[in-house]
Automatic annotation (TrEMBL):
This is dihydroorotate oxidase (fumarate). Residues 5-292 form the Dihydroorotate dehydrogenase catalytic domain. Homodimer. The lineage of its organism: Bacteria, Candidatus Curtissiibacteriota. The keyword Oxidoreductase applies. PROSITE patterns: DHODEHASE_2. Its EC number is 1.3.98.1. Belongs to the dihydroorotate dehydrogenase family. Type 1 subfamily. It catalyses: (S)-dihydroorotate + fumarate = orotate + succinate.
Length: 311
Protein backbone atom coordinates (compact mmCIF):
# COMPACT_ATOMS: atom_id res chain seq x y z
CA UNK A 1 0.00 0.00 0.00
CA UNK A 2 1.45 3.37 -1.05
CA UNK A 3 1.26 5.98 1.71
CA UNK A 4 1.17 9.61 0.55
CA UNK A 5 0.15 11.04 3.91
CA UNK A 6 2.27 13.78 5.43
CA UNK A 7 2.53 15.97 8.51
CA UNK A 8 2.89 19.73 8.50
CA UNK A 9 4.00 21.19 11.82
CA UNK A 10 2.82 18.01 13.47
CA UNK A 11 -0.64 18.19 11.88
CA UNK A 12 -1.46 14.95 10.10
CA UNK A 13 -2.80 15.19 6.54
CA UNK A 14 -4.37 12.12 4.89
CA UNK A 15 -2.67 12.97 1.61
CA UNK A 16 -0.06 15.50 0.57
CA UNK A 17 -1.97 17.74 -1.84
CA UNK A 18 -4.32 20.59 -0.97
CA UNK A 19 -5.54 23.91 -2.32
CA UNK A 20 -3.43 27.03 -2.67
CA UNK A 21 -4.86 30.08 -0.97
CA UNK A 22 -6.73 32.40 -3.31
CA UNK A 23 -8.61 30.00 -5.58
CA UNK A 24 -12.26 29.16 -4.83
CA UNK A 25 -11.74 29.58 -1.09
CA UNK A 26 -13.41 32.89 -0.30
CA UNK A 27 -16.94 31.93 0.75
CA UNK A 28 -18.30 29.29 3.12
CA UNK A 29 -19.68 27.44 0.10
CA UNK A 30 -16.22 27.39 -1.51
CA UNK A 31 -14.69 26.12 1.71
CA UNK A 32 -17.34 23.42 2.18
CA UNK A 33 -16.70 22.26 -1.38
CA UNK A 34 -13.01 21.98 -0.53
CA UNK A 35 -13.84 20.10 2.66
CA UNK A 36 -15.88 17.62 0.60
CA UNK A 37 -13.15 17.22 -2.04
CA UNK A 38 -9.97 15.15 -1.83
CA UNK A 39 -7.96 18.24 -0.94
CA UNK A 40 -6.23 17.02 2.20
CA UNK A 41 -6.63 20.34 4.03
CA UNK A 42 -8.82 23.39 3.66
CA UNK A 43 -6.77 26.54 3.20
CA UNK A 44 -8.83 29.71 3.37
CA UNK A 45 -8.46 32.88 1.28
CA UNK A 46 -5.91 35.36 2.62
CA UNK A 47 -7.80 37.69 4.91
CA UNK A 48 -7.54 41.30 5.95
CA UNK A 49 -9.05 43.10 8.90
CA UNK A 50 -11.98 44.52 6.95
CA UNK A 51 -13.77 42.80 4.08
CA UNK A 52 -12.51 43.81 0.63
CA UNK A 53 -14.17 43.69 -2.76
CA UNK A 54 -10.78 43.55 -4.48
CA UNK A 55 -9.84 45.00 -7.84
CA UNK A 56 -12.20 45.62 -10.77
CA UNK A 57 -12.86 42.79 -13.26
CA UNK A 58 -11.58 41.26 -15.43
CA UNK A 59 -8.99 40.46 -12.80
CA UNK A 60 -8.10 36.79 -13.36
CA UNK A 61 -7.66 35.24 -16.79
CA UNK A 62 -6.55 31.80 -17.90
CA UNK A 63 -3.58 31.69 -20.24
CA UNK A 64 -2.37 28.82 -22.41
CA UNK A 65 -0.04 27.43 -19.73
CA UNK A 66 -1.27 29.16 -16.57
CA UNK A 67 -3.01 32.30 -15.42
CA UNK A 68 -2.62 35.97 -14.65
CA UNK A 69 -4.41 37.62 -11.75
CA UNK A 70 -4.73 40.87 -9.97
CA UNK A 71 -7.57 39.97 -7.63
CA UNK A 72 -6.59 42.63 -5.11
CA UNK A 73 -7.21 40.49 -2.06
CA UNK A 74 -11.01 40.16 -2.18
CA UNK A 75 -12.08 38.52 1.09
CA UNK A 76 -14.80 38.62 3.68
CA UNK A 77 -12.63 39.92 6.51
CA UNK A 78 -10.95 37.82 9.21
CA UNK A 79 -14.03 37.61 11.43
CA UNK A 80 -15.87 35.68 8.71
CA UNK A 81 -13.03 33.16 8.44
CA UNK A 82 -13.00 32.67 12.19
CA UNK A 83 -16.72 31.94 12.02
CA UNK A 84 -16.24 29.59 9.06
CA UNK A 85 -13.47 27.72 10.85
CA UNK A 86 -15.88 26.85 13.65
CA UNK A 87 -18.54 25.64 11.21
CA UNK A 88 -16.02 23.61 9.20
CA UNK A 89 -14.53 22.04 12.28
CA UNK A 90 -17.94 20.85 13.45
CA UNK A 91 -18.98 19.43 10.09
CA UNK A 92 -15.76 18.00 8.61
CA UNK A 93 -12.69 16.21 9.89
CA UNK A 94 -10.14 18.07 7.84
CA UNK A 95 -7.15 20.19 8.86
CA UNK A 96 -7.95 23.88 8.56
CA UNK A 97 -5.46 26.55 7.59
CA UNK A 98 -6.06 30.28 7.86
CA UNK A 99 -4.17 32.68 5.61
CA UNK A 100 -3.37 36.10 7.01
CA UNK A 101 -2.40 39.04 4.82
CA UNK A 102 -2.65 42.20 6.88
CA UNK A 103 -2.35 45.57 5.19
CA UNK A 104 -0.23 46.85 8.07
CA UNK A 105 1.94 45.31 10.82
CA UNK A 106 -0.75 46.16 13.37
CA UNK A 107 -3.43 44.39 11.34
CA UNK A 108 -1.30 41.25 11.24
CA UNK A 109 -0.94 41.26 15.02
CA UNK A 110 -4.68 41.71 15.56
CA UNK A 111 -5.48 38.83 13.22
CA UNK A 112 -2.82 36.45 14.55
CA UNK A 113 -4.14 37.06 18.06
CA UNK A 114 -7.74 36.55 16.98
CA UNK A 115 -6.98 33.17 15.39
CA UNK A 116 -5.44 31.89 18.65
CA UNK A 117 -8.85 30.92 19.98
CA UNK A 118 -10.19 29.20 16.91
CA UNK A 119 -10.10 25.62 15.62
CA UNK A 120 -7.64 26.40 12.81
CA UNK A 121 -4.74 23.97 12.89
CA UNK A 122 -2.18 26.12 11.09
CA UNK A 123 -1.70 29.66 9.87
CA UNK A 124 -0.06 30.59 6.58
CA UNK A 125 1.18 34.16 6.80
CA UNK A 126 1.09 35.75 3.35
CA UNK A 127 3.31 38.81 2.99
CA UNK A 128 3.88 38.12 -0.71
CA UNK A 129 0.81 39.39 -2.53
CA UNK A 130 1.77 41.23 -5.71
CA UNK A 131 -1.60 42.83 -6.27
CA UNK A 132 -2.51 45.18 -3.47
CA UNK A 133 -2.55 48.52 -5.26
CA UNK A 134 -0.27 51.05 -3.57
CA UNK A 135 1.47 48.36 -1.47
CA UNK A 136 4.85 46.80 -2.20
CA UNK A 137 5.44 43.04 -2.15
CA UNK A 138 6.45 42.83 1.50
CA UNK A 139 8.34 39.58 0.98
CA UNK A 140 10.97 41.50 -0.98
CA UNK A 141 11.61 43.92 1.89
CA UNK A 142 13.91 41.86 4.11
CA UNK A 143 14.01 44.29 7.03
CA UNK A 144 10.25 44.55 7.10
CA UNK A 145 9.95 40.76 6.95
CA UNK A 146 12.26 40.49 9.95
CA UNK A 147 10.13 42.96 11.92
CA UNK A 148 6.87 41.29 10.90
CA UNK A 149 8.02 37.78 11.80
CA UNK A 150 9.28 39.09 15.11
CA UNK A 151 5.96 40.70 15.97
CA UNK A 152 3.67 37.87 14.90
CA UNK A 153 5.88 35.25 16.58
CA UNK A 154 5.31 37.04 19.87
CA UNK A 155 1.53 36.86 19.73
CA UNK A 156 0.59 33.62 17.99
CA UNK A 157 -0.13 30.35 19.75
CA UNK A 158 -0.75 28.51 16.50
CA UNK A 159 1.92 26.80 14.43
CA UNK A 160 2.53 29.10 11.50
CA UNK A 161 4.36 29.26 8.21
CA UNK A 162 5.16 31.94 5.64
CA UNK A 163 4.08 32.05 2.03
CA UNK A 164 6.97 33.52 0.13
CA UNK A 165 7.12 35.36 -3.14
CA UNK A 166 9.52 33.79 -5.63
CA UNK A 167 13.18 34.78 -5.31
CA UNK A 168 15.61 34.71 -8.20
CA UNK A 169 18.94 35.64 -6.70
CA UNK A 170 20.98 33.19 -4.65
CA UNK A 171 21.82 35.84 -2.05
CA UNK A 172 18.12 36.54 -1.54
CA UNK A 173 17.40 32.89 -0.73
CA UNK A 174 20.12 33.00 1.90
CA UNK A 175 19.04 36.32 3.39
CA UNK A 176 15.43 35.23 3.68
CA UNK A 177 16.33 31.81 5.09
CA UNK A 178 18.51 33.47 7.74
CA UNK A 179 15.63 35.71 8.79
CA UNK A 180 13.17 32.83 8.92
CA UNK A 181 15.51 30.71 11.04
CA UNK A 182 15.41 33.34 13.81
CA UNK A 183 11.72 32.71 14.46
CA UNK A 184 9.50 29.74 15.31
CA UNK A 185 8.34 29.42 11.72
CA UNK A 186 7.23 25.85 11.05
CA UNK A 187 7.00 25.90 7.28
CA UNK A 188 7.52 28.04 4.20
CA UNK A 189 5.23 27.85 1.19
CA UNK A 190 7.08 28.43 -2.09
CA UNK A 191 5.89 30.27 -4.16
CA UNK A 192 3.30 32.99 -4.57
CA UNK A 193 2.67 34.12 -8.14
CA UNK A 194 5.48 35.89 -10.02
CA UNK A 195 4.48 39.51 -9.57
CA UNK A 196 3.64 42.01 -12.27
CA UNK A 197 3.68 40.04 -15.48
CA UNK A 198 1.82 41.36 -18.52
CA UNK A 199 -0.47 39.34 -20.79
CA UNK A 200 -1.60 40.85 -24.10
CA UNK A 201 -4.26 40.02 -26.68
CA UNK A 202 -2.58 40.77 -30.03
CA UNK A 203 -5.93 40.85 -31.89
CA UNK A 204 -7.53 43.54 -29.75
CA UNK A 205 -4.13 45.07 -28.91
CA UNK A 206 -5.30 45.24 -25.31
CA UNK A 207 -4.14 43.89 -22.00
CA UNK A 208 -6.13 40.97 -20.55
CA UNK A 209 -6.85 42.20 -17.05
CA UNK A 210 -8.09 45.59 -15.92
CA UNK A 211 -6.14 46.48 -12.74
CA UNK A 212 -2.70 48.09 -12.84
CA UNK A 213 -2.67 48.68 -16.59
CA UNK A 214 -2.78 44.90 -17.15
CA UNK A 215 -0.01 43.86 -14.74
CA UNK A 216 -0.71 40.82 -12.58
CA UNK A 217 0.71 37.78 -10.84
CA UNK A 218 1.69 34.97 -13.18
CA UNK A 219 0.86 31.46 -11.98
CA UNK A 220 0.51 27.91 -13.27
CA UNK A 221 2.80 26.16 -15.71
CA UNK A 222 4.85 29.28 -16.46
CA UNK A 223 6.21 29.32 -12.93
CA UNK A 224 6.81 25.63 -12.24
CA UNK A 225 10.58 25.81 -12.63
CA UNK A 226 10.87 28.93 -10.50
CA UNK A 227 8.73 27.22 -7.85
CA UNK A 228 10.91 24.10 -7.93
CA UNK A 229 14.08 26.18 -7.55
CA UNK A 230 12.58 27.99 -4.55
CA UNK A 231 11.47 24.73 -2.94
CA UNK A 232 14.93 23.27 -3.47
CA UNK A 233 16.83 26.28 -2.18
CA UNK A 234 14.71 26.69 0.94
CA UNK A 235 14.78 22.94 1.59
CA UNK A 236 18.57 23.07 1.55
CA UNK A 237 18.94 26.31 3.48
CA UNK A 238 16.44 25.46 6.18
CA UNK A 239 18.14 22.13 6.71
CA UNK A 240 14.87 20.23 6.88
CA UNK A 241 14.10 21.79 10.31
CA UNK A 242 11.54 24.06 8.75
CA UNK A 243 9.29 22.30 6.27
CA UNK A 244 8.67 23.44 2.71
CA UNK A 245 5.32 23.33 0.91
CA UNK A 246 5.58 23.52 -2.88
CA UNK A 247 3.15 25.44 -5.07
CA UNK A 248 3.36 26.60 -8.67
CA UNK A 249 2.48 24.75 -11.86
CA UNK A 250 1.29 21.46 -10.36
CA UNK A 251 -1.15 19.83 -12.79
CA UNK A 252 -0.16 16.16 -12.48
CA UNK A 253 1.13 13.56 -10.07
CA UNK A 254 4.54 13.81 -11.69
CA UNK A 255 4.59 17.58 -11.04
CA UNK A 256 3.82 16.80 -7.39
CA UNK A 257 6.54 14.12 -7.35
CA UNK A 258 9.08 16.67 -8.61
CA UNK A 259 8.11 19.11 -5.85
CA UNK A 260 8.61 16.43 -3.19
CA UNK A 261 11.86 15.25 -4.76
CA UNK A 262 13.06 18.88 -4.55
CA UNK A 263 12.19 18.87 -0.84
CA UNK A 264 8.49 19.65 -0.39
CA UNK A 265 6.58 18.03 2.47
CA UNK A 266 3.24 18.86 0.83
CA UNK A 267 2.03 20.37 -2.41
CA UNK A 268 -0.61 23.00 -3.11
CA UNK A 269 -2.63 23.48 -6.28
CA UNK A 270 -3.90 26.88 -7.40
CA UNK A 271 -4.25 27.50 -11.14
CA UNK A 272 -4.99 23.85 -12.01
CA UNK A 273 -7.77 23.85 -9.38
CA UNK A 274 -9.15 27.03 -10.96
CA UNK A 275 -9.04 25.52 -14.43
CA UNK A 276 -9.96 21.87 -13.79
CA UNK A 277 -12.13 21.99 -10.66
CA UNK A 278 -11.97 19.97 -7.42
CA UNK A 279 -11.41 16.61 -9.17
CA UNK A 280 -7.78 17.73 -9.59
CA UNK A 281 -6.94 16.80 -5.98
CA UNK A 282 -7.87 13.11 -6.37
CA UNK A 283 -6.31 12.94 -9.83
CA UNK A 284 -2.94 14.35 -8.81
CA UNK A 285 -2.75 12.18 -5.68
CA UNK A 286 -3.72 9.01 -7.60
CA UNK A 287 -1.14 9.76 -10.27
CA UNK A 288 1.47 10.41 -7.58
CA UNK A 289 0.69 7.06 -5.89
CA UNK A 290 0.90 5.23 -9.22
CA UNK A 291 4.23 6.84 -10.08
CA UNK A 292 5.62 6.01 -6.63
CA UNK A 293 4.48 2.42 -7.04
CA UNK A 294 6.31 2.14 -10.36
CA UNK A 295 9.43 3.50 -8.69
CA UNK A 296 9.15 1.20 -5.69
CA UNK A 297 8.59 4.02 -3.17
CA UNK A 298 6.30 3.31 -0.22
CA UNK A 299 6.02 6.77 1.30
CA UNK A 300 7.17 10.36 0.77
CA UNK A 301 10.20 10.01 3.03
CA UNK A 302 11.62 7.48 0.56
CA UNK A 303 12.36 10.26 -1.93
CA UNK A 304 11.66 13.64 -0.31
CA UNK A 305 14.57 16.02 -0.98
CA UNK A 306 16.64 13.27 -2.58
CA UNK A 307 17.12 15.07 -5.87
CA UNK A 308 20.41 14.23 -7.56
CA UNK A 309 22.72 16.69 -9.28
CA UNK A 310 24.97 15.90 -12.22
CA UNK A 311 28.29 16.28 -10.46
O1 LIG B 1 -4.62 39.47 -5.85
C1 LIG B 1 -4.69 38.65 -4.92
O2 LIG B 1 -5.68 38.56 -4.17
C2 LIG B 1 -3.52 37.76 -4.77
N1 LIG B 1 -3.02 37.22 -5.92
C3 LIG B 1 -1.89 36.47 -5.91
O3 LIG B 1 -1.42 36.00 -6.96
N2 LIG B 1 -1.29 36.21 -4.74
C4 LIG B 1 -1.76 36.71 -3.56
O4 LIG B 1 -1.12 36.44 -2.53
C5 LIG B 1 -2.93 37.52 -3.57
C6 LIG B 1 -3.46 38.08 -2.35
C7 LIG B 1 -3.12 37.78 -1.13
Amino acid sequence: MIDISTKIAGVKLDGCVFNASGVRDETLLDLENLAKSKSCAVLMKSCTLAPRKGNPAPRCVNLKYGSINSMGLPNLGYRAYIKFSKILEEKYQKPLIASICGLSPKDNIIMFKAFNDTPVDLIEFNPGSPNTIGKPIVGYDFEEMDRLLDSVSKVTKKPFGVKLPPYFDLTHFEQMANIIKKYPVKFVTCVNSIGNGLAINPQTEKVLIKPKGGLGGIAGGYIKYTALANVRMFYQLLADKIQVIGVGGVYSGIDAFEMILAGASAVQIGTAFLQKGPGIFARVQNQLSNFMKKKGYQNLADFRGKLNTLD
